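for the record, two folds in this file. i put them one after another cuz i was lazy. first one right below, seq on top, structure tokens after. the second one comes after a little note so u can tell where it starts
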Amino acid sequence: MASTTLVGNLTADPELKTTADNTEFARFTVAWSERQKAGDDWIDGPVTFVRCTVWGRMAPHVASNLHKGNRVIVSGEMRAEEWASDKGPQTDVVMTVKQIGASLEFHDVTITKRERTGGAGAFGQQPQQPQQPQQQGGQATGWIKQDAQKGFQPQNEEAPF
């Protein structure tokens, strides 16, 4: 599925929720309208609303740091969601958010890097350790692997390719 990026304002504070298996998610709506100049005045066009959901460890950070009216940039996967109402079939555009941030055009932001928890990298995998050749007289004689506590350690005498 293709990724789409939207820029708009939050219509309400994000709501933090938890599934039955304790997975956290936050829901919010992003809205925007096209503004057009009419003489000396600006006229707002029709408003577009997109319901958004962000999953996992990013959800509580979205809920605690973003609020109604904030201008945000969201990127993720969009789809149409159909549902029935007393007025007949309805369709909403929804997004599963992969990335979100406040627009620096409208907000002052202080960035604080969070500590990783659990030691897992992207998609739950262990982070890859960089490998570099061990030099001796200008030639690679073996390969070493970086260990966070011990530094670089020899692994074997053959290159890993």
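(here's the note) second protein begins now
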Amino acid sequence: LDVPIDMKYKDPDQDLVIEIEKGPQTLDGEKALHYMRFREDYPDRDLGRIRAQQTLIKAVANQMCRPASILQLPALVGILRDGVETDLTAGEMIWLDTAAVLALVNEKFNPYTEPVTKLNIPD
């Protein structure tokens, strides 16, 4: 992700410290959350924040649509299962996640005329 500005913010009441340098980098989960929460110093204020949030969402979607990431869905479901309360089974979560990712790939990123399916994803 190419961070558009230096993001520096401290809020002791929330025990929140945001320190992200401007420029291309890989964000872990905590830094990604800080990136999404940051609201100061954008030259075009809210529009800049919205644009930055959209950029992060697209970067995450691009990362998730890589074949290697799709193959890690069972592990991701385990992480979600531990952090989200649901009555879905692990199998149902994998099916929904796979279906959602494939729909996103076909809608936004598929350069081919034939839809990408679980059966034709390259290794």
